[in-house]
């Protein structure tokens, strides 16, 4: 289906006439001593289908605001994009440091369908038809316009515009880049951290990056562990799954995907030693590698990191009752319709089991959502451009150890600079979150990164770009576009 963006002059009139905005409060302050700058929730009346102008159906969308650093009245507004998860507040990460530096207000809108922002009580496949990145981008555009209108009313202004800057990590990082691409008149620039802008059908490069990040010794131990798991799965699946506390995963593919993800997480979030040290040690000592891996999975992946076995259970993913536990079903729907990112095993030298293949992913999509659900990655990449995105004033950043960086824009250009933060534990969103990221690193402190200076240098580049682009936005003689 071809989707056409509504011209900006229609958008403004449409927003003003249709949407009811619950005005923000500009007088109170929040404590920001913990993991969040604020957890105080607000509500926004959002249109369900932005592409059906005659349909006025709305739903309540949750958002947050943090105003302690706001330089009234002309300070910038930072819009932090929430993604495929429950948005519990505005994280106290490096974006908060930037907000303090630039005198910015910070707002964050929960992604449609996730958390408390679900339009439906039942998340049937039919009811999920309005869940897409395109609808989510329009949500952000409408929210941004209405928030600015409300702020102007509070400050007794009429047509003034504060400079806006958009932030996102991972899928929200892609949304941040795409927002700048599709709505350049609504933002001065974007930070697209670990932004997965390329929809990929068979994402074999993901597993290849895991092997590269692991290094020769750890990779060899992981590959041997995978072979032993495959062998035990064929002879005594029940006992094997029990040793990982994963007996609920009746489908072998679900179990193997769970084990692969457990390894990925160590590199993705800056904790490679948690995985590699015990595995390499066990291999050198001649100990049982499967037992060593099971210990890591139970103690770190299910324990410290807090992963859930049920997230990999297709029967669990079929649950259509909307709740704050629905994120896995919702994200799989987006995977199965828009972006794929099928993390399949390469044909040779794979780290994960070869049974985690394209057929496994397609069967999951069909089993969970029914016939006819298929990821149209070509349309997604045509619509946004993939890594050939034709935007401007977007900073792309990636961590050297992050498997997702193979779906991000890693080639730099003057209008869209791209930086890779290189160190042994630089993972997903390191520029915003620091490293390691489990447990959460308050203010994104880089001191625990293997190369703190590498993080600082990229952050300085981000500040330089932001300073330039925000100043250009504030100069009324220049265009933000």
TrEMBL record:
One family name in Pfam for this protein: Peptidase_S28
GO MF assignments: peptidase activity
Signal peptide region: none
Highest taxon above the source species: Eukaryota
Cross-referenced InterPro entries: AB_hydrolase_fold, Peptidase_S28
Keyword hit for Protease: yes
Tagged with keyword DNA-binding: no
Keywords linked to the UniProt accession: Glycoprotein, Hydrolase, Protease, Signal
GO biological process, one term: proteolysis
Family of this protein: Belongs to the peptidase S28 family.
Protein name in UniProt: Serine protease eda2
Species of the source: Stylosanthes scabra
Gene name as annotated: EDA2_2
